[in-house]
Amino acid sequence: MTPTHALTSILPCNDLDASEKFYARLGFTRADSDKPEDGEDSYRILSDGKGGHLHLTDAVEGWLIRGRNPFGLYLYTEAVDELAREFSGELANGQGPEDTLW
User: Fold this and answer.
1) What residue numbers bound the domain in which 58 lies?
2) Do the beta carbons of residue 46 and residue 28 sit within 8 Å?
3) Does residue 70 belong to any structural domain of this protein?
């Protein structure tokens, strides 16, 4: 089914390679045809083949500060249990849910 209406996020990143590897773990990959043969690689278009799209771009140096990212993304997926196992040993900002004060 081809979507008739869509919105795609463009996410600034300090490290495009690390960001692309992270999102690959969530099923988002870049088509070989979108990879430059040579030259600057400062913009990446990822998709998960299920309708999810994410664009990554270089952030202006010093603009993004670790732990203070102003952006949020939500991934709606049926693979919650699988992803929970994949990321079970990792914590956001060094805190697990039990350490966070709401």
Assistant:
1) 9-89
2) yes
3) yes
Residue 6 in contact with residue 53, Cβ under 8 Å?
A: yes
What pLDDT does residue 20 have?
94
Count the domains in the chain.
1
pTM: predicted TM-score of the whole model, two decimal places: 0.76
- CB atoms closer than 10 angstroms to residue 9: 13
CATH of the domain at 16: 3.30.720
Dihedral sign computed on CA atoms, order 56, 58, 60, 66:
positive
DSSP 53: E
Whether 66 maps to a domain, the answer reads yes
Mean pLDDT for each consecutive 10-residue tract of the chain (102 residues)? 75 90 93 84 92 90 76 84 82 50 36
**pLDDT score of 95:** 52
- Written as six digits, the tokens of 69 are 């990212």
Q: Is residue 3 part of a domain?
A: no
| Cβ partners under 8 Å of residue 70, min gap 6 | none
- The answer to whether residue 101 sits within a structural domain is no
